[in-house]
Amino acid sequence: MNKKVGIVCYPTVGGSGVVATELGINLAEKGYEVHFISTTMPFRLKRLYANIYFHEVEVANYPVFKHPPYDLSLANKIAEVIDREELDIIHAHYAMPHAICSIIAKQMAKREVKIVTTLHGTDITVLGIDQSLQNMICFAIEESDGVTAVSESLRKQTKEVFNTEKPIEVIHNFIDQVDPSIESPSRLKENLGILPEEKVIIHISNFRKVKRVEDVIQSFFLIQKKVPSKLLLVGDGPEYSNMRSLIRELGLDDQVIFMGRQDNIQDLLTISDLKLLLSEKESFGLVLLEAMAQGIPSIGTNIGGIPEVIQDGKNGYICSLGDVDDIANKAINLLNDDKLWKDFSTHAKSYVTENFDSKTIVKQYEELYDGLFT
Ligand code: GMT
What we know:
Elements: E1 4-8, H1 15-29, E2 33-38, E3 52-56, H2 70-85, E4 89-93, H3 95-108, E5 114-119, H4 122-125, H5 131-143, E6 146-149, H6 152-162, E7 168-170, H7 185-191, E8 199-204, H8 213-226, E9 229-234, H9 240-249, E10 256-260, H10 266-270, E11 274-277, H11 286-293, E12 298-301, H12 306-309, E13 316-319, H13 324-335, H14 338-355, H15 358-371
Parallel strand pairs: 1-2, 1-4, 2-3, 4-5, 5-6, 6-7, 8-9, 8-11, 9-10, 11-12, 12-13
The chain binds ligand GMT.
């Protein structure tokens, strides 16, 4: 009989929430009973599935609490769901705080349950650097029954930073086959004020400092001098206003289109010719897969898991962090060479299908789950 799996994740727009939700949907389609435990319904969970349940974590907020105790409310809810729904596995996405809360819940619950933790990056590459949290993250890793990392780079970094004994399996992020786009690309381009002959460069992120959106803009500044083009900036976050100012300073107001947060980026990718992800920290870069699955070549930095997704010179380019001249030169060369672009585009699609298809990757999670019960 298929197992009952509880998935604990951040429901908001962001790679880890997308991966957790898509995993749940794929498992449900294979007959698992899936229980999402989160503060709000994961945003990609748009359809109704008979065997997917959602359990809302309500955070108590009494005046005596200086900070609402999200972690405790979550642990309590996980324990409650383990017992009531007779779960076999809790799959926590992020060590901090989701794995920790799951471990507390396991101790509270009356039923034996296995904990699987998937490391997505920031818990290791950002929080891991904070000494005060290191012991806690170590504890989450060692006490989990199974641990995965979304890239080899993240697995290596976790071992180096935490020196943990627990084996960490690399299970890359994945993508479902892309549905045909509903919007007509030429109409969408026209609606956005992009001329038919203009190339479209796209960047999608949460505009945190680590994403180095300023490098995207500086690279575009050089690109647009040689290639008629527009830059689509999709997302929102702390660096948003600084980026607006930079664009004004560079006189790029008419050539950069701010799209804000978008749940459905597929149509925007359909009209794009090049994806830029120039982060200084990136454990994987799910947005790269989303672009490459649509045949959009990408340029990324030689950071974290990015080189596990982009094959330099085959389906995109890998450049050094901050080297905007090199990034721009490579982009100009690619955008001006139709044959090269088509080659990269074909390779991008096939590389994603061969290596990051949901069918292949979800099977790896299933094998991991099975292994916990033998
Ligand atoms: O990109 C982000 O900063 C959001 C973050 C998240 O929590 O969704 O992304 C992390 O997990 C994604 C899914 O595994 C990865 O594709 C991103 O590379 C990773 N972000 C970082 O490592 C900065």
